[in-house]
Amino acid sequence: MTNRHAARDRGEDQAVPLHSNSTSHGTGFAPRSVGDGPVAVDLWLVRYPTRHSTGRRLAVAELDAQERTRADSFLRPRDALLYTAAHIALRRLLAAALGLTPEDVSYVRESCPGCGRPHGRPALRPGPSPALHFSLSHSSGRALVALATAPVGVDIQRTPSAAATEACVRLLHPGERAELEATPQDRRGAAFGQLWARKEAYLKGIGTGLERPAHADYLGTPGPGPWRRPPHWTVLDLFAGPAHAAAVAVPGTPAQPLPVRPLPPEWLYEGAAARVVAPITRRTEGRCPPRAAGVQQTVKETST
Questions:
Q1: Strands 260-262, 41-47: parallel, antiparallel or unpaired by DSSP?
Q2: Helices then strands, each counted (H, E), the chain
Q3: What is the crossing angle of helices 77-98 and 65-72, to 10°?
Q4: Which residue blocks in the chain are alpha helix, DSSP H?
Q5: How many Cβ atoms from other residues are within 10 Å of residue 233's Cβ?
Q6: pLDDT for 220
Q7: With the CA atoms of 96, 98, 100 and 101 taken in that order, what torsion angle do they form, in degrees rounded to the nearest 10?
Q8: pTM for the structure as a whole
């Protein structure tokens, strides 16, 4: 499982909380009002890119200098390749939603709502109006991207080993520990992975990441006991394959359904940005963010 430094190293905690200065409320954070009605969320699954016989290259030139430096710093080539693919996908999805080129998408780091230091969620610069929020997570060959009309957090985790599970149980909320101890041993790793995905999704959504102690909030399965999940937020489990657990967190109520859509592999390679971004931009002119709702229809057309 991740600690706070490992989470940053994986390039996670990507979000755009342009109107979400959070305040503490009991065991949770209550976001500033983000408008009436359900929160629109688009979810995209990025798989580990494969090398094409045509020799096509990932669109690395669309990343900024900091992203390219971060990709070069990974010790394992597979980790560097997944990081690169995830950030290309994120830039292209945001570009389509905002009517920009991927190179023109720019991030800044917000202040943490817990301590005020500049290690909060990345945010678009300049921020769009209405606000567009996003989140990114990647782990062991897969990445998850969310675009939303309110602050959002996503997390994806590979199912941990029994040893990793036992080592991290002590970090959890008392109610979560009790649930895991009641789970049969052969299902405990999967249960812990799903629980941790919920926890990281929520902590990214409120903007603190793992600077907030993992035991501070209950993200288990509510039952007859006294434990309840944080107020004001909805945290949902997502399907991301048999070897991964994933979750999304948003304030209020998300619009349903929330399918996790596979990102077409061709969206990651050089020369595809104009074909991908321009048609989506035309389809979504004048719509409220996330304009990536138009991306969903384009995927259906380009992947059939």
A1: parallel
A2: 8, 11
A3: 160
A4: 4-9, 65-72, 77-98, 162-168, 174-181, 185-206, 273-284, 293-302
A5: 22
A6: 96
A7: -40
A8: 0.81
